[in-house]
Amino acid sequence: MIVTYLGQPIMQVSRKHRTEAIILLQSLPCYLYFHDDSKSIGMIWHSMGVIKQAVQKLNSAQVPVITLDQPLYALAKMIQWNWKESHGEDKYVIMLGGLHIEIAGLKVIGDWLEHSGWVEALVKALLTHSLRHHM
After folding, report:
1. What digits encode the pLDDT tens for the residues 34-68?
2. d(CA 125, CA 135)
């Protein structure tokens, strides 16, 4: 991307106008730079590329590891499956965010305990009361 000021590439603008352009760019909020929605495939694709460039600059042998929340994770995996040559699973490690892993784990534990007799055993032992009996 070439940054322009008054229709000219920033490096071809005079020093005075270049300073004005930099001040203008610094005063704009970040979200004005992108026209796509942050949860679009295009933005996830772009973000993956930016992350890869940063990682390669720091350590060219490192595969980028990206952690995303569930909706963005699903988009990143779709990108990996559809563009294997440039964004495949050998090029990026995409991980589901910790919150979603924890929620999934708690749901599994809840499913295991739901019909195990655990609640009834605690009620019989007078350690707690079941809300099911009050509803």
Report:
1. 667 778 888 999 899 989 999 888 888 999 999 99
2. 21
Round to whole Å and give the CA distance between 106 and 113. 11
Single pTM value for the model: 0.55
DSSP state for residue 33 in the 8-state scheme: G
User: CA 2, CA 10: separation in Å to the nearest integer?
Assistant: 8
Q: Which H or E run contains 84?
A: helix 84-87
Per domain, the residue ranges of the chain are 1-33, 36-133
Residue 15: how many other CB atoms lie within 10 Å? 7
**CA of 135: how far to CAs of 34, 37, 82, 130, 132, in Å?**
51, 44, 49, 9, 5
Helix axes 41-58, 70-82, angle to 10 degrees: 80
